[in-house]
């Protein structure tokens, strides 16, 4: 390959004819900046995977790593990634009121202005300085890997394709097992100019003068330096830990995809997709968003009922033929083969019992590339106060409003005060967690909430007849659950087998929404009248809608929205908050 202002560079594997002009131009720019010794164009073959494993084993000195398809650091060993946002509109980088200097980012209701819903804003000059400092000559003596990947089934109408440039064979191997890497992705990259351009370097140009496998006991590994260039759909990452933790896939499927979704009319969220089947073999699918895993519920459905986890990582939501559908952009077969347990900690060298020899990146459990139709969206809150056990929002707009200002209970950090003051103070504080999203939104919070409102406007089927009296299809209902309500410091809800009763009630509401015989209307939403439980439970406190509590909660929401969005506050929010307060 002949690179202007650089010279010739060997391509050890792959064919330059695979690359589209846009990919070639971006590759030329990266080669001039990073000066690698060779280029490898990947195609996702089984032989390529074995060569990558051999290269990793030779570099880190572990023979057992020649048999693994995914290698990860222990996620508790490293700190948070330093994520920065470079965009033309600064509102997309720092929405609302930033935290005052010298204050702690507690996120409690008393320090609501300290909540940061986005990453740090980076100016154009700062980005160019950081790029020159971090990436200039960072691949001296190393091989540059050029990897095509597809989020979603290859060739799907809802897939997002991209290229990854890196000098880390571990990232290439993990990318193969997280998304879909195959030679046919090059054809789809050639057919579009809108694809993700991701660049990464571990920052170890040869000759390496320090150990990169096992840090000293006094050296705590840090997260990676990541820059999201939304306007150009680029991701720049620098650091040894990027690509070696289970969270690296969310940089693409959540952080980058959320911005793309706002432009194309779909959502990218952290949620699971559950399939609920009743004794009559009728099945519905729901999106379940929670800060805890679905396994923590220990679901034990009653006779004839089944609750299956279709996906538990990332969900993309979109409209299709008059219904809202959801799909997981990550590779599905890795779940079937036990990939969460197929980890090798590069610090300790310990490996797990499950090993994967090969897999088909085109195989998928989805019967359609559009995903599955969802009948409800569930937000599993974690509150110890009077937040009800099950709450069904009256409309999509009210559900979005309540979810955008959700607050969850977290353990209060211990202070240096006396023991008496600790005992008298509450054990938990409330932290704002909009949409139960653990990852930063990384663009304007007002745009993000407004996009949720727009998703509630149904898109009609392409086969439906056009008519002046046409009514848009309704969006799925939004439910809120809370299994952690306490009285005098003791949990009321027994959990265990009764957790499945919540999903059985939601199934009944979704399949027969006109039947209100087992619901009690309130100013904030609908709650069930009764539940068939296996244990003696004091249900009235769990299902009570306390007017004073909710008026205070709505006031907190209004303060939170005004501080975070300021002049960009969507008009729907103000109307919904006023209507809810009036209903109460």
- Derived structural class: alpha/beta
Radius of gyration (Å)? 25 Å
Number of helices: 14
Mean pLDDT: 80
Global geometry: elongated
The CATH architecture of the largest domain: Alpha-Beta Complex
Q: How many strand segments? A: 26
Q: Tell me about the largest β-sheet.
A: 9 strands, mixed
- Beta-strand content bin: 15-25%
What's the N-to-C terminus distance? 69 Å
CATH top level of the largest domain is: Alpha Beta
Ranges with pLDDT <50 over ≥5 residues? 95-116, 335-349, 351-358, 418-424
Query: Can you tell me the CATH topology of the largest domain?
Result: Phosphoenolpyruvate Carboxykinase, domain 3
What fraction, in percent, of the residue positions are helical?
25-40%
Strands, helices and their partners?
Layout: E1 2-3, E2 7-8, E3 11-13, H1 21-34, E4 38-41, H2 46-60, E5 82-86, E6 120-121, H3 124-135, E7 143-151, E8 160-166, H4 169-178, H5 185-190, E9 196-201, E10 225-229, E11 234-238, H6 248-264, E12 267-270, E13 272-277, E14 283-290, E15 306-311, E16 314-320, E17 323-327, H7 333-336, E18 372-381, E19 390-392, H8 396-404, E20 407-411, H9 419-424, E21 428-432, H10 445-455, E22 478-482, E23 486-487, E24 490-491, H11 499-511, E25 519-521, E26 526-528, H12 539-543, H13 547-565, H14 571-583
Parallel strand pairs: 3-4, 4-7, 5-6, 5-10, 8-9, 9-11, 14-18, 18-22
Antiparallel strand pairs: 1-2, 7-8, 10-11, 12-16, 13-14, 13-15, 16-17, 17-18, 19-22, 20-21, 23-24, 25-26
Helix pairs in contact: 2-4, 13-14
